[in-house]
Write a structure and sequence with these properties.
Number of domains: 1
Strand content: 15-25%
Oligomer: single chain
Shape: globular
Distance between the termini: 20 Å
Helix content: 25-40%
Number of strands: 9
Structural class: alpha/beta
Radius of gyration: 17 Å
Number of helices: 6
Length: 212
């Protein structure tokens, strides 16, 4: 199990990681996140995806930006040839806007078939960092996804792991999810998963928990 700091060691309203201030800045909305593709047999997973997505956006975005952003999460989408090796993909509805406000996150079916609930939430966390990047104008691209700008500069880095928007997303995905787990009081298997992403020890389903 991860070494979770006591609440006195980590004030939930004011701790910082990098440039992101991990503190929700406004009250949650009820209309900004829509989720499809998670069946009625998994009501707890559906609820966690929706509540975590709103929590992450409130944490990552300034209040005025959060107020205008909407995200549609489609679980079980079919990947095209370009994204056949991806777990998920995120993009604005209108690629021409410098500061888009509507986004779609596609979670691909071939990946979902191999994921437990925690892994799915981690992928959602990663993709929500990309939503933040697009919404704040840090990341811009084209719908063909062969041209990218990062912080107003064209970026042609071919190595996925060195692309600055991916470095940031991988750096924040677990922190966001861990903070959500603290706030939602999700039990210890969540902590174990955050440290051991792909091990059998982490294969715990959210539906084994009686707490949301």
């Amino acid at each position: 199990m991860a070494n979770r700091p006591a609440s006195s060691e980590m004030p939930l309203t004011c701790f910082h990681v990098g440039v992101a201030r991990f503190s929700p800045r406004t009250a949650p909305r009820t209309d900004n996140i829509t989720v499809e593709g998670i069946g009625p047999d998994k009501p707890l997973l559906f609820a966690h995806v929706k509540s975590f997505a709103d929590f992450a956006l409130r944490t990552l975005l300034p209040k005025a930006t959060y107020a205008r952003v909407n995200v549609h999460i489609r679980a079980g989408s079919t990947a095209d040839e370009v994204h056949s090796s991806d777990d998920a993909v995120t993009g604005p509805v209108d690629w021409n806007k410098a500061y888009p406000s509507s986004f779609v996150i596609d979670l691909f079916d071939q990946s979902m078939a191999m994921m437990n609930d925690f892994e799915l939430l981690l992928i959602v966390s990663h993709e929500l960092v990309h939503v933040k990047q697009f919404a704040l104008g840090h990341l811009r691209g084209r719908s063909d996804r062969i041209f990218w700008k990062w912080m107003s500069r064209e970026c042609r880095e071919p190595n996925y792991w060195l692309q600055p928007w991916e470095v940031e997303a991988h750096g924040l995905e677990r922190i966001l999810l861990h903070y959500y787990a603290l706030m939602a009081e999700i039990p210890s298997p969540f902590d174990r998963f955050l440290n051991l992403r792909t091990t059998s020890d982490a294969s715990v389903d959210l539906h084994n928990s009686d707490r949301l």
